[in-house]
Design a protein that fits this description.
Layout (H helix, E strand, L loop, with lengths): L14 E5 L27 H13 L4 E5 L9 H14 L4 E6 L4 H10 L4 E5 L5 H8 L4 H14 L2 E8 L8 H10 L3 E6 L11 H4 L3 H11 L2 E3 L8 E6 L5 E5 L12 E4 L4 E3 L7 E3 L1 H5 L6 H11 L23 H4 L2
Parallel strand pairs: 1-2, 1-10, 2-3, 3-4, 4-5, 5-6, 6-9
Antiparallel strand pairs: 7-8, 8-9, 10-11, 11-12
Helix pairs in contact: 1-2, 3-5
The structure holds S-adenosylmethionine and iron/sulfur cluster (SF4).
Pfam families: Mob_synth_C (PF06463), Radical_SAM (PF04055)
Cofactor: [4Fe-4S] cluster
Catalytic activity: GTP + AH2 + S-adenosyl-L-methionine = (8S)-3',8-cyclo-7,8-dihydroguanosine 5'-triphosphate + 5'-deoxyadenosine + L-methionine + A + H(+)
Length: 335
């Protein structure tokens, strides 16, 4: 173990999110344009390089690793990578290995993910209506995702559903989604739509449905009990007293959570983003590729990057514009 990673604001960095591919089998309207140009395969870190990167972060104090994308389960041979990371769980250095997925490939992978040591997963699901699901994901099919959820639960994986709150789209599903999750013993987290990427004609301000409103509407039917702050995460949680369902809110816009940020994000090409809402990044790939047998330059590059972690993001819709917008797509950094 080397000295822990501490940023300039005295936040310890113990959580790494890694986007292992920019590709996806869906084209969600808030995430991707209909016709995306993806990175050439040669630009991607190989699975061995991803292993070396992640293992270096683990050695430097990262205890939680979340694999994301694009859709992580469409990366070829991704199980090899999960299986390799499980050695850090076995050694105790890594406390949690997890992923965020659209659920489309879970039927195929759930058992093997559990065998690799994954215990909890996040699945993104914005609607339970087949036609609306096809519309918001453009390419997705709801029944396939629902079968994926079943397979994951049968394999023993605990599921949290993430739903993006979209005005005029899933407002009417606030209670049905909560009930669906309660019946299946899944937590549910609502996410405010963020101004990421240039998606052509998408109307970001029009899509934005404040979670303050989501919460107020829930409170009309349920008694909400605030749960204590989670450590470092952006979500705030409540429990619905009547159903004991736990519901989270990720509110980058109506509530700023940066002061407790413990995470950084790496793209599939080895760029390290110190903040989801800022353009600054450090390219770790040269330190990795130019020194195939020596991790010291990579460690130094990581430490230097953490030394530049900004205090927070600048997203703001309050002037009826998507201020603070960043140009890259969410699929680049993995959300
Ligand atoms: N493909 C996987 C999935 O959908 O779960 C993992 C990657 S996806 C980029 C990660 C998360 O980012 C998803 O929950 C998705 O809903 C969310 N997301 C994508 N674009 C977003 C945006 N503009 N604002 C808020 N959340 C967004
Ligand atoms: Fe793919 Fe996830 Fe983006 Fe949807 S949100 S397009 S599933 S990466």
């Amino acid at each position: 173990m080397t000295a822990p990673l501490i940023d300039p604001f005295q936040r310890a960095i113990s959580y790494l999110r890694v986007s292992v591919t920019d590709r996806c089998d869906f084209r969600c309207v808030y995430c991707m344009a209909e016709n995306m140009t993806f990175l050439p395969k040669k630009d991607l870190l190989t699975l061995e390089e991803l292993d070396r990167m992640c293992s270096t972060f683990v050695r430097m104090g990262v205890e939680k690793l979340r694999i994301t994308g694009g859709e992580p389960l469409v990366r070829r041979d991704i199980l090899t990578f999960f299986n390799a990371m499980s050695r850090h769980l076995d050694s105790g250095a890594l406390k949690e290995l997890t992923l965020t997925t659209n659920g489309s490939q879970l039927e195929r992978f759930a058992k093997d993910l559990f065998a690799a040591g994954v215990r909890r997963i996040n699945v993104s699901l914005d609607t339970l209506d087949e036609e609306k699901f096809a519309r918001v994901t453009r390419w997705g099919r709801l029944p396939q995702v629902l079968r994926g959820l079943d397979a994951a639960q049968a394999a023993g994986l605990k599921i949290k559903i993430n739903a993006v709150a979209l005005k005029g789209f899933n407002e009417d599903e606030l209670f049905s989604l909560a009930q669906f999750c309660a019946e299946r013993d899944m937590d549910l987290t609502w996410i405010e739509v963020m101004p990421m990427g240039d998606l052509g004609n998408e109307d970001r301000v029009g899509q934005y449905w404040s979670l303050k409103d989501v919460r107020a509407r829930l409170a009309q039917q349920f008694t909400l009990r605030d749960l204590p702050e989670s450590t470092g995460g952006p979500a705030r949680y409540v429990r619905l007293e009547e159903s004991s369902q736990k519901i989270g809110f990720i509110t980058p816009l109506s509530h700023n959570f940066c002061e407790s940020c413990n995470r950084v994000r790496m793209t599939c090409t080895g760029e390290l983003y110190m903040c989801l809402g800022q353009e600054d990044m450090a390219d770790l790939r040269p330190a990795l590729r130019n020194h195939p047998k020596d991790d010291a330059p990579l460690e130094a590059a990581i430490r230097a990057a953490i030394g530049l972690k900004p205090q927070g993001h600048d997203f703001d819709y309050s002037r009826q514009r998507a201020d603070g917008q960043v140009s890259r797509h969410m699929s680049h950094t993995g959300g």
